[in-house]
Amino acid sequence: MSIRKMMALHPKAEGHTNEPMAVAAKHAMYCALFCTSCADACSAEPMDMAQCIRTCMDCADVCTATAKIAARQTAEDNALVRAMLTACIDACHICATECDRHDHEHCRLCATMCRECADDCREALATLH
């Protein structure tokens, strides 16, 4: 299954899709899953991980909302898409910074995914007029 293919099937797309936007939507969903998993793992750590848990959960919510909005093509709202991509970039940066503070493999993976998601959102942002 491919979100690119699904987006290309939209009547407005006429068989084409904004590739960077499709990649950003896909990776934002992946990032939401990584952040959710990291928050869950942090909750099982013996030390106080409250800030990391909160940051990961917030980032997961922003990423999920961004992915949904980025995948929509009917009645374009580039201002909102731009705002969501920007919010996702910011949330991912904040989450990566927080996860970098901890010496746990799940935090390292989450930080890496957040950076990749932010990069993809920047590329998608550049495609908006």
N→C terminal distance: 29 Å
Report low-confidence residues grouped into runs of 5 or more.
none
Helix content: over 70%
Characterize the biggest β-sheet: none
CATH class: Mainly Alpha
Helix run count? 5
* Structural domains: how many: 1
Protein name: Four-helix bundle copper-binding protein
Organism: Sphingomonas aracearum
InterPro entries: Csp_YhjQ, YHJQ-like
Q: What attributes characterize this protein structure?
A:
129 residues; Substrate Binding Domain Of Dnak, Chain:A, Domain 2; 5 helices; mainly alpha
Secondary structure elements and pairings:
Elements: H1 3-8, H2 19-43, H3 50-71, H4 78-100, H5 105-125
Helix pairs in contact: 2-3, 2-5, 3-4, 4-5
Provide a short characterization of the protein structure.
InterPro entries: Csp_YhjQ (IPR005560), YHJQ-like (IPR044543). This protein has five helices and no strands.
Please tell me about this protein's structure.
This protein has 129 residues and is mainly α. It has one domain: Substrate Binding Domain Of Dnak, Chain:A, Domain 2 (Up-down Bundle). Helices cover 75% and strands 0% of the residues. It has 5 helices and no strands. It has helices spanning 3-8, 19-43, 50-71, 78-100, 105-125. The protein is elongated, with a radius of gyration of 15 Å. The protein starts with a helix and ends with a helix. 39% of the residues are buried. The mean pLDDT is 93. It holds the Pfam family Csp.
